[in-house]
Amino acid sequence: MTFQFNFTIEDHLGNELIPFEDEDLTLYSSKESSVSESQKGKQGPRKCSTEQFDLPQYDFWKHESVGDAAPSQDRDSPLSAANSSDNLEPHKRQPGLRVAKEHAMPKDLKKLLENKVVETLPGLQHVNVSLVKTILLEKNFPGENIVSKSLSSHSDLITGVYEGGLKIWECTFDLLAYFTKAKVNFAGKKVLDLGCGSGLLGIIAFKRGAKEIHFQDYNSLVIDEVTLPNVVANSTLENGINEPAVKRGRKSKLAQEQFKCRFFSGEWSEFCELVLSSEKLFVKYDLILTSETIYNPDYYSTLHQTFLRLLDKNGQVLLASKAHYFGVGGGVHLFQKYIEERNIFETRILEIIDEGLKRVLIELTFKHLS
Ligand SMILES: C[S@@+](CC[C@H](N)C(=O)[O-])C[C@H]1O[C@@H](n2cnc3c(N)ncnc32)[C@H](O)[C@@H]1O
What we know:
By secondary structure, the protein is α/β, with parallel strands linked by helices. It has helices spanning 9-12, 78-83, 109-112, 129-138, 146-152, 170-181, 200-207, 220-233, 236-239, 244-256, 268-278, 300-310, 332-342, and strands at residues 2-3, 46-48, 101-103, 117-121, 124-127, 157-158, 190-194, 212-217, 261-265, 285-291, 311-322, 345-353, 359-366.
């Protein structure tokens, strides 16, 4: 089954963005100074932007081990029972589901941005995804081959093959604007950008003081070609990459520091298995950010399970979605109904954006059992 949506994000850029406030970001500005454009190597990314923002850069690689932290769940409480991974049915692998894997940050960060054009939005940088797709097509990129499949099927979504991560979807910008408007507090939080695509939600969370940030996308290629480059484009190490002192120190720095940002690809139930089984004392997420992930009702069960298994008992999901996905069937009404019937999460409408295609921002929290 293939689907197509009738808007482009490029059209949306620029006119609806609210600049991100940086006042709380100075806490995280890097010790390393960034270099000017002229200092950058010839192979560095081209920057193209209508507006230049003088933004602080951040070090994404400072790590506090997940394993060192105590589990945040009170295992005796009824809510904990619902929230714990231990008491869920054993995971049965369904054939055909995309196996989850963790993507290591490549040693050569500069390479990640080779042949990429980096564009600037208020408070963020991101690679031009159209160019990424063109290059992947030209290279006849092996592996998932999702670009040509998406092109030949004229679709941004091919169920079970390509789930749309090679594009920045409209609701991402709604959620980014909401972060600023609502002064969402990321400080010290463990955040998951679920179905991340470009990863802009997670990147902003990190810039605003999240303690740790995990990025997940269905497609491995999306993580390698878009999410990782975007994180690097917003990091200190990329910006200081050509300074001799940084070059010298970078290796040892990278060796010493494990990454604070981690990257995963694969289907949601497989992703849950991977993180829950690979981290003995897995600390659940305080905040799950997810944009345009409820288009397909067939995925609601897995998505609901993912929230249930990975969200901290006091955690919060911030979800952005179109009111309805024509041609696919999913949307806010159906999803809310699904959630209400399960009776585990409370949903609260945060904002309705009634321009163009109607969009909705929703918060999910655990119903607190007495
Ligand atoms: C339409 S894209 C939205 C991408 C991004 N959040 C945005 O707003 O630009 C949906 C994303 O959800 C993820 N996704 C959808 N269904 C999934 C599933 N069953 N398992 C894992 N990931 C899934 C895909 O990785 C995809 O990037």
